Amino acid sequence: MSTNTIDKPRKVTTATLRKMKAEGEKIAMLTAYDYSMARLVDASGMDVILVGDSATNVMAGNETTLPMTLDEMIYHARCVSRGTDRALVVADMPFGTYQGDANAALHNAVRLMKESGCQAVKIEGGREIRESMEKILSAGIPIMAHLGLTPQSVNKFGGYGIRAKEEAEAQRLLEDALLVESLGCFALVLEKVPADLAAKVAASLSIPVIGIGAGSGVDGQVLVVNDMLGMNKGFKPKFLRLYADLQSVIDSSLKNYIADVKAVSFPSAEEQY
Ligand code: KIV
Fold first, then answer.
1. Which atom of ligand 1 is nearest to the CA of 224?
2. How far apart are CA 184 and CA 207, in angstroms?
3. 187, 208 contact by CB (below 8 A)
């Protein structure tokens, strides 16, 4: 019998998440974009790691998520998959890879799954991408839907403000949430919507609803790892809680290193051959 499965933690699956919702256990989800961070996040006991297209903001300095390419996403998701044993790895489908022809959407989703080793894809939108969702789901690829503030539509919205404050948009969002559940999506991300609406959506669905800026009445939370670790202190939206001040830790560490190099106190006798 092979022994290498004995020490491996039990993998989180889409079924695990559905059970967690049914049993009232909240789901913790965080982004990661590279192998080293994925190892740390996975070892913490995180349930889901999202390889968000926010990678193109955080890792590449782009202002919006629109420039992200499928090849870049495959690269990030492959690095994260290599560093993850337990968490469910979900990768974003980049802008332009699923909004048009459903066959192209399926082709791109298959590439993302096959070439990165992720276990599910996330896509932004509801009824307008129904055909793509159906096609991708028909191939056995799990989809996490994303409604509310969908950053790939920033140019349509004209910014990153709160969505669905008005009754008509809130009603449309609820209908879209019910639709994506009925199509077979395994989870839904709700971004920057009023907490009351998010709680109503979560109570109306049997699939887990994961919020970001959507209050505490949902089934789990997601944040961008660099933001919550305080590596990007210029970005401080209301929904973000800082769990560390890595910007200060890194800054003082780097300054200490420079000072040690200049003073020739690094390397010491013990740090050379
Ligand atoms: O790309 C991303 O990081 C996301 C989360 C903010 C939900 O979509």
1. 3
2. 9
3. yes
Which residue's structure tokens are 């933001």? 227
Rg (CA), the chain: 20
C-alpha distances out from residue 19 to 28, 122, 177, 216, Å: 14, 20, 19, 19
Is 115 one of the annotated active-site residues of the chain? no
Q: Which of 124, 134, 175, 191 is catalytic?
A: 191
Is 124 close to ligand 1, i.e. is its CB under 6 Å away?
no
Q: What is the pLDDT of residues 175-227, one digit of tens each?
A: 999 999 999 999 999 999 999 999 999 999 999 999 999 999 999 999 999 99
From the CA of 122, give the closest atom in ligand 1: 8
Shortest-distance Cα residue to atom 4 of ligand 1: 52
d(CA 10, CA 191): 29
Model confidence at 5, in pLDDT bands (50, 70, 90)?
low
Where does the pLDDT of residue 63 fall: very low under 50, low under 70, confident under 90, or very high at 90 and above?
very high
